[in-house]
Amino acid sequence: MAPTVDELRNEIRVAVDRYERVESTAFTKEALAAICEAVGYEIDTDRLPPKGEMRGGIRREIGETETVERTDRAFRKAELEAIAAALDSE
After folding, report:
1. 11-69, pLDDT tens digit by residue?
2. Rounded Cα gap, residues 23 and 87, in angstroms
3. Which phi and psi (to 5°) does residue 61 adopt?
4. Own/partner pairs for 45-52, CB < 8 Å, 24+ apart?
5. Which end of the chain is least crowded, N or C, by CB within 10 Å?
6. How confident is the model at residue 90 (pLDDT cuts 50, 70, 90)?
7. Where are the alpha helices (DSSP H) in the chain?
8. What is the four-CA torsion angle of 8, 13, 14, 15, rounded to 10 degrees?
9. With 0-12 CB in 10 A as exposed, 13-18 as middle and 19+ as buried, what is 72?
């Protein structure tokens, strides 16, 4: 059985040394910053950029897009699967 979106988010959180969540929630800015670091997207950690910018950078680093496109939507399941796979390969 394929993992759910919540299971994928928690798998990614654990992979970047964040804590799992019982309830279904999107990534916090801090979790997105940890994912950025893990996939190689450089950000200014003194003042975290907007969530949309970090999502765009993550999407670019995992090969989902060629440019950093700021977006306010959460990651789709296929994108979460690609992030989890990128983190597993490291």
Report:
1. 999 999 898 887 878 899 999 999 999 999 999 888 999 999 999 999 999 998 888 88
2. 23
3. -65, -30
4. 51/27
5. N
6. low
7. 5-15, 29-39, 51-61, 77-88
8. 90
9. exposed
Domain presence at residue 23 = no
pLDDT of 68: 83
Per DSSP, helices labelled H in 22-76 are 29-39, 51-61
Q: Is residue 35 in some structural domain?
A: yes
Give me the amino acid identity at 7: E
In the chain, the number of structural domains is 1
For residues 63 and 51, the answer to whether their CB atoms sit within 8 Å is no
Q: What tokens appear for 85 in the block?
A: 């796979």
How many whole angstroms separate alpha carbon 90 and alpha carbon 77? 20
